[in-house]
Amino acid sequence: MSAYKPAAAVSIAPDTTLALLGLALMLVGLVAISSASIEYADWHYQNPWFHTERHLVYLVLALVAGVLTYRIAPTFWLETGWVWLFVALALLILVLIPGIGREVNGSQRWLPLGPFTLQPSEFAKMAMVIYLAGYMVRREHEVRNHWQGFLKPMAVLFAATLLLMIEPDFGATVIVAGSAFGMLFLAGVKLGHFMLVFGGAFSAGLVLVVSAPYRLKRLTAYTDPWADPFDTGFQLTQSLIAFGRGEWLGVGLGNSVQKLFYLPEAHTDFVFSIWAEETGFVGALAVIALYIALIGRILWVGRTALAAANPFGAYVCYGVALVFSGQAFVNMGVSSGLLPTKGLTLPFVSYGGTSLIVCCCMLALVLRIERDTRVQGGAA
């Protein structure tokens, strides 16, 4: 079915543009986290550089994981995609077991590993992308022409999203489901099949929002946060104040006022707000431009891989682009008031070890696909 053959072991440099875009975002994250967390860390841990030091450790681990991923041939992921999906589902079940998973603010999303924690939902995003990419290669005709080819991955997706909602982690649910639907759509699923299932999933999402009072409050608060600025609209109003204070060029790195215990989660979910306050519209636009360039480059790699008869590589690239673009859009949309408040990390930038490691691994996988496509093209 595919003329693609894995590239031989050839010494060839990775895509410099793609690698530099990823590194640029990681450097932005390091600077933004250091600035946003310094007062919070000093107050809670008596060490102003607590989060910076931990993030540096995460950066080293993420880069090592990325290098290891880059050295693994894509055929390995193609053949073992179901294994990674099984591991992801097992971790999502494990985190829900009382006494094993760690609960924070009413959500049980973390597995404690000594001084660090593992967030299975982040790993599930990558596992789902790899599994679906392999499934769509093996079952291409079935996916495009028969109901069963579409419903089988939907059953897997339902199991994963159900586990994510039990935690609960509505943000990760949206990203996993949205990326899966996007990949299946790009794989050529019949529009009638796609719209019917997508419509059902969207309706189920609305029911989930309405059935949980705290989700409904977040949705209604987002439409007019100033109606209750000290309760349901508190985070968003403080975030909007940060954007307003930034104006065109910002107040300067380290000079944010909103990070002084006004804006909760300033170094995680709302790090973009502090960045916008300190670097202004120009700095915020620069970060958005980096994401546009990164995602555009990944989509270009996917298109090149498809032209080189490597559908697995193409589908992986499309899935990674959907995950990165979805998370970046939701995070920045929440910070600016475009979307309802929902905790979701900004890829490569927000504080969080699991998110950073998984993002580096996904980017490394794209880099390896691009390298192999180039080698294959040169050998043709």
What's the structural blueprint in terms of helices and strands?
Elements: H1 16-45, H2 50-70, H3 74-94, E1 102-104, E2 107-113, E3 116-118, H4 120-138, H5 140-145, H6 147-166, H7 170-186, H8 191-211, H9 213-223, H10 234-246, H11 271-307, H12 311-336, H13 353-379
User: How many E strands?
Assistant: 3
Oligomeric state of the chains present here? single chain
- SSE class: mainly alpha
H/E series: HHHEEEHHHHHHHHHH
Distance between the termini: 18 Å
Could you characterize the architecture of this molecule?
The chain is mainly alpha-helical. It has one domain (16-373). Helix content is 71%, strand content 3%. It has helices spanning 16-45, 50-70, 74-94, 120-138, 140-145, 147-166, 170-186, 191-211, 213-223, 234-246, 271-307, 311-336, 353-379, and strands spanning 102-104, 107-113, 116-118. It has a 3-stranded antiparallel sheet, with no helix packed on it. α2 (50-70) packs parallel to α13 (353-379) and α6 packs antiparallel against α7. The longest helix has 37 residues, at 271-307. The chain starts with 15 loop residues before the first helix and ends with a helix.
